[in-house]
Amino acid sequence: MEIAELGEFGLISHLTKDIELKNAETLKGIGDDCAVMQYAADRKVLVTTDLLMEGVHFDLQYMPMKHLGYKSAMVNLSDIYAMNGRPRQMTVSLALSKRFKVEDLEDFYAGLRMACEAHGCDVVGGDTSASLTGMAISITCIGDVAADKVVYRNGARDTDLICVSGDLGAAYMGLQLLEREKMVYNEQLREARQRGEKPESLPPFQPDFSGREYLLERQLKPEARRDIIEALAKADILPTAMMDISDGLSSELHHICKQSHVGCRIYEERIPLDYQTAVMAEELNMNVTTCALNGGEDYELLFTVPLTLHDRVSAIPGVKVIGHITKPELGLQLVCRGGTEMELKAQGWNPLRR
Amino acid sequence: MEIAELGEFGLISHLTKDIELKNAETLKGIGDDCAVMQYAADRKVLVTTDLLMEGVHFDLQYMPMKHLGYKSAMVNLSDIYAMNGRPRQMTVSLALSKRFKVEDLEDFYAGLRMACEAHGCDVVGGDTSASLTGMAISITCIGDVAADKVVYRNGARDTDLICVSGDLGAAYMGLQLLEREKMVYNEQLREARQRGEKPESLPPFQPDFSGREYLLERQLKPEARRDIIEALAKADILPTAMMDISDGLSSELHHICKQSHVGCRIYEERIPLDYQTAVMAEELNMNVTTCALNGGEDYELLFTVPLTLHDRVSAIPGVKVIGHITKPELGLQLVCRGGTEMELKAQGWNPLRR
């Protein structure tokens, strides 16, 4: 179905008609000038927003719309957890060119709502308009947290332990894999055109992802770590500093150290890696530690806890202590497998510099 | 200066370095995974968001960056007032192609911050990334209102008076004027190229805006009507329904009538018009009432009040009673100057249908 048949208001009602509001804090969702919420006075309110552009943040050639909706939501949910909060409300604005159909939007919303439902977040605002060129996605997520439990980036102190959830670098390896298969496919298309064949006449493209499913999932369907936030609360651990790893571990460590006015020392051998990440890096002739440090899009949590909590934090499944906070004059150091030390450079994802 | 020289984080710090947070509700602005706020339990929290795309929502050929920043903020501030709220926090995300310079961004932020400062709103989040094509602007505004004073679109009741602030249609006429001068200029460019001259060799273009300054201002520098919200509060009037006029009066009346399950009757002769709007419509051979009903971008307030408040609401400068709410079966009617009645159709701005 063509989007123009429904128009803006028709499309929004179509996409949002059966949305239910589940949080007591949500008083009014889609349909007025603003969404309306009410929070208890002992809660702090968190807000985060992301603007995602086609061709820069996502590639529709290998990103299905449903996954795109899911991931767009997840990226924002992750920012709320990174403050030790719980997501409550989300607004989503899309700008689309004429090549999209209503069914594409349905897929996007299905993915977005699946992510929101899994994390108890109400969709309270939706807006769809035209784009002359690529697709743009703007998402805002609102969350809350007990007033004395917000965790900022600036609370890390000398001797604190540096912890990471999950494993790192897999999302970046998934991206490399997708880019490689895309090149193979585009090359097949080019050759077919040279032979005077139509692209439709080619047999369906069979990308080779066998044994790499985990890498793909990390890139296409990341999961915000609510489980870690819950496990920390259950273990009665309040991190001194925390953020999510979206641009790469080294870049995020720089943020925490700069804002906390401290240095850090992490150990290469302790950086958590999945087996598939290591194999893929080997195959691409890349250093797997570099991928884990600078890859980005892992959406794992990076946090610091007082040294005295070593045993308690180590007992949480999926959390690994990778080093510790130092005095600021010691800088940011990576202790390599061989024992040599090197300065940790922030080389994370930076779309404006490229 | 090239944006790439600063990179994403450098650019954000450069643009936001001297931002002060003024509202007690704002606890943390730019620099963490989320902005952090705290509201009293007797306040309701409002959130609105807009995604603006180059070529669809704005044209950089005649929209200076400073005005663009100002207007982008104002559009969102207006949505907060439309709920009878006060704006408190704003986040802004930009996506830009390489043709922009740091100075362009400085201008945009200068305009945005001017609007925010005038309305007591803190800029708490900023994000800048790359775009492969046009510019995209995503703004989210958060506000608050006493819990018993939120005004929705769905509270209009039979016999309520329909009121409008300011005058209508001028922003649309300003757009027509700018489009006309753009065509004249582009024609001069085309002719110069045909003569083999370089565009730079042309004398500076002198658009003819004399006597039309008000129309330009309404299009390029709209003002959200905080003054009306304050005047209503001072007169102890709580509207039964309210929204801002962004898509055109007729479209907004349809929203209020649909959500309130009522009809309405408005009088053509009472629709507030500026003299310049009428002159420009005449010149363009357009019906001025059609422009006022369907033009959009006026950012005036449309609201309903109980009939008993007629004298009190009429005494507010800049507010005009244009009709009244009726039973739903009477539909939406426009009483023309000659006394004939016609059905009011929603023909407001719809970028997806065009």
Structure description:
Two copies of one chain form a homodimer. By secondary structure, chain A is of the alpha+beta class. The first copy, chain A, has ten helices and 13 strands. The first copy, chain A, is flat, with a radius of gyration of 22 Å. Chain A folds into two domains: 3-146, 60s Ribosomal Protein L30, Chain: A; 161-174 and 216-343, Phosphoribosyl-aminoimidazole Synthetase, Chain A, domain 2 (Alpha-Beta Complex). In chain A, 35% of the residues lie in helices and 24% in strands. Strand 2 of chain A pairs antiparallel with strand 3 (43-53) of chain B.
What's the structural blueprint in terms of helices and strands?
Two copies of one chain form a homodimer.
Chain A: H1 3-16, E1 26-28, E2 35-37, E3 43-53, H2 65-81, E4 86-96, H3 102-118, E5 122-130, E6 136-146, E7 161-165, H4 170-194, H5 213-220, H6 226-234, E8 241-245, H7 249-260, E9 263-267, H8 275-283, H9 288-294, E10 300-305, H10 310-314, E11 319-326, E12 332-335, E13 341-343
Parallel strand pairs in A: 4-5, 9-12
Antiparallel strand pairs in A: 1-2, 3-6, 4-6, 7-10, 7-11, 8-10, 9-11, 12-13
Helix pairs in contact in A: 1-3, 2-3, 4-5, 4-8
Short description:
2 copies of one chain form a homodimer. The first copy, chain A, is α+β, with helices and mostly antiparallel strands.
Keywords:
homodimer; about 350 residues; alpha+beta; 60s Ribosomal Protein L30, Chain: A; Phosphoribosyl-aminoimidazole Synthetase, Chain A, domain 2; 2 domains; seven-stranded mixed β-sheet; flat
